[in-house]
């Protein structure tokens, strides 16, 4: 028991469809015909109570067809994917400020900027190749500031590390904003020309003095002041963030608070000045762009806009419900209420990736009909009525994906899939046919060309151009030209007509984490990634990483001493929702009262038993980053 | 109209290459000019993503008026210069360099080395069968990649890729001086005890196969490595949202190694451990 196996559970590929007549039975092998007939019948019974979980790891083309399946075949806008669990607040916050949910800069601009703020991001581990662009920037003379509760490998490259308390990002941002205003460093010309509500913003941040911010965030006032001055004085500055900002019950507010700083200083809409949310999965950006979200049609066009709806209704010969569908979080709530009865889950593993995973699995079990289409028999697939074996999008499928800098790139089939596994689009189209919609796409390019015909932002991106240029950033409205690598240059236009809609400041208030620490649960648990592992480990568990050491609960040396535990010793980690047993790792990059875990090894240590399902009301993202826990020593544990 | 900064226009440099008038953009090297003109100048230590190290001297050319031969990889073209790439003197020099290298290092996995040895008439055997060989066993201390210093020509590309030019991990360095110089991780420890983060960017730039994928190493040992039967397909990594480009090398429907296009604007030939080695999950087929 003391020696842990460093090799996590290895998943083997699904090679043929699986079905069962009741959940009490084991799966049995089925023909494609039987599996698809059952699936079509089950979905046919569930009209009006259907939800589609599309896949942020699959291609743009598959996401386009999946959302079209939900809207045209099933008549619902209930379509979403795991962007809900990570960067939906970035999309919501950027959309609210600028009308577009993409990051505003390119990677290359990070190499040619003067200041880089990495906020709630351990990019050195989570986005290593993006961090190489950051390192180029640093070698070119840029200064970097790290704002993060942990002193990470990323923070080691920073001019200054601001180790704030978990969930105090808004006080920090507001104090920076107030300091910029009081020091006379705000870009008044930009604010007055291109923004709204800056007076209200100034009033909002006025109480957040450096000393109050120091008390709340735990960061010395002088360090906050230095960052404020450096950011405001820089000729060009990049503000980058990841899940440390978004995975909170007020993630969208956090994002708005950061965007405010760019509006205050004019660090947006120029080469080298911008906002970069670093996306977590290979096609989170593209999934949303393709309309696999409940409130947007392909091209990130608002479903409530009658002209947009009309365009798609003509193109698809259908009617689209003029209302937003349920997002992933709301679909889980609707399962609880019994109003969502059938789910088509493609390439997602919510039984392990959702916060409060016990509850998520219980809700999935309560469905009348669950179909999982994946490359592995995941924990979610184990709950299904029908399992459909699919291809791995990046190596067994042709298509495109869209990265964090909005660059659409070609993915290509390199190996043949195992057994009877079929491509997602084939499966979707055959199901659509069984449900009365004859869709014929010769290949992925045909799907992409249909998307180009309805999405102005993608219209100029032919497959040939994507190939020749090694990817193109959206927007790309015509086939002859390319747009600048950054978004929202319009904000700098002198002509109000061309400047367009002004960017509003986000008037957001501090709201501490829902799961408060107290005497019973005195430690703040935050979560994140390690370099060699990924999400629930289904993919990254497949290779023999020498860096892998399994799941641990990481404590600072002071806390380890206080609880009388040593590295490697197993302890019980308990939250108000559940508990797990995990060995201790001692990390001097943590501070007293702060613990760290990942979700990479849920079959060994199910960290999401501990996390809280408190959601951002705007984006639906859960507060993975802030749970209250207790560490119990296992004194009389035998074996 | 929004302003897009452009590089200042580059002037063209005119000079003579093997008697022919040639024009290249200012800052281009003689090697760039040779490649643009379709001339095949052998290179080993030159790396298209790295600053030239001038270590191997196999690409030397003759510049009229210069006392010594010039490494084409790092010498910039200058107006009016007259350059010869294929003279008795350059051929003699390349022959000797190849003889010295091939007598002391195992070049069996260095692309094109055997053909150059024939082309330049090099006779490595004249220094004796095992002249100055390390005669070390390959270091196999993890499941991802193998170090075989018998194949190392001390070009320092791996040091640069691991160091400040790309990865900034600084796990790899030169230990010792002069004849004792060798590539090592700190304290010459096993990789698993070093700062290595297994990005494999050192393998990407290694010109001789001294650093190689364990998958390739094992297949070569088993006699099943067959580059002629491999296809190369560039796709996008399945992990985080950065969008790194992967070139999958596939033999018999198995991914056998992963490289990255050097001219790609996202990766510049670099990857992390997941992109480079994390492909196995798709081929756990039974």
TrEMBL record, chain A:
Sorted alphabetically, which Gene3D superfamilies does this protein's record hold?
Answer: 2.40.40.20, 3.40.50.740, Dimethylsulfoxide Reductase, domain 2 (3.40.228.10)
List each coiled-coil range.
none
The record's InterPro entries line, in alphabetical order, gives: Asp_de-COase-like_dom_sf, MoPterin_dinucl-bd_dom, Mopterin_OxRdtase, Prok_molybdopt-oxidoreductase
What does the entry give for GO biological process? Answer: respiratory electron transport chain
Stated name of the protein: Formate dehydrogenase
Q: Which residues form the Molybdopterin dinucleotide-binding domain?
A: 524-626
Name the Gene Ontology molecular function terms of this record: iron-sulfur cluster binding; metal ion binding; molybdopterin cofactor binding; NADH dehydrogenase activity
Q: Which domain of life is it from?
A: Bacteria
Show the SUPFAM superfamilies listed in the entry. ADC-like, Formate dehydrogenase/DMSO reductase, domains 1-3
Q: What is the lineage of its organism?
A: Bacteria, Bacillati, Actinomycetota, Actinomycetes, Kitasatosporales
Q: Which GO terms describe its cellular component?
A: membrane
Domain spans labelled Molybdopterin oxidoreductase: 13-432
Give the record's keywords alphabetically: Iron, Iron-sulfur, Metal-binding
TrEMBL record, chain B:
2Fe-2S ferredoxin-type domain sequence ranges: 11-89
Question: From the UniProt record, which GO molecular function terms apply?
Answer: 4 iron, 4 sulfur cluster binding; metal ion binding; oxidoreductase activity
* Pfam families xrefs: Fer2_4, Fer4_7, Molybdop_Fe4S4
The 4Fe-4S Mo/W bis-MGD-type domain, residue ranges? 230-286
Gene3D superfamilies, alphabetized = 3.10.20.740, 3.30.70.20, ADC-like domains
User: What are the UniProt keywords, alphabetically?
Assistant: 4Fe-4S, Iron, Iron-sulfur, Metal-binding, Repeat
Is NADP one of the keywords UniProt gives this record?
no
Instruction: Write out the transmembrane intervals.
Output: none
Where does the record place the 4Fe-4S ferredoxin-type domain?
143-162, 188-216
User: What is the name of the protein in this document?
Assistant: Fe-S-binding domain-containing protein
Species lineage: Bacteria, Bacillati, Actinomycetota, Actinomycetes, Kitasatosporales
